[in-house]
Design a protein that fits this description.
The protein has one domain (3-72). The longest helix is centred in the first third of the chain and has 40 residues, at 3-42. With 90 residues, it is an all-alpha fold. The chain has helices spanning 3-42, 49-70, 80-86.
């Protein structure tokens, strides 16, 4: 293979690589535009205040349950450091 043929081959492959990258980039742009268009058609999600408060209560209750019931030992007592802070020795 001559030097000119090798250069031509490298240039062809490089141009093809750049074309694939450009096509991928354009595809991502189109997908992003479609997502934005669909989001605009759906509009802003709305909840009435009662549904919103129920959702918040469910999350808070679940966190409370997971934090205090599941992760705590059987006997729930404050750690010794907090007892000393709240009940100072006279």
């Amino acid at each position: 293979m001559t030097l000119e043929d090798a250069i031509r081959l490298i240039q062809i492959h490089e141009r093809a690589r750049q074309g694939r990258l450009r096509a991928k980039f354009m595809r991502e742009i189109r997908q992003q535009e479609e997502r934005e268009k669909r989001a605009a058609l759906r509009g802003v999600p709305t909840l009435d205040p009662e549904d919103a408060s129920i959702r918040i209560q469910k999350v808070c209750t679940a966190r409370l349950f997971c934090t205090f019931i599941v992760d705590c030992p059987v006997s729930i007592s404050p750690p010794p450091s907090t007892v000393a802070v709240f009940n100072p020795v006279n």
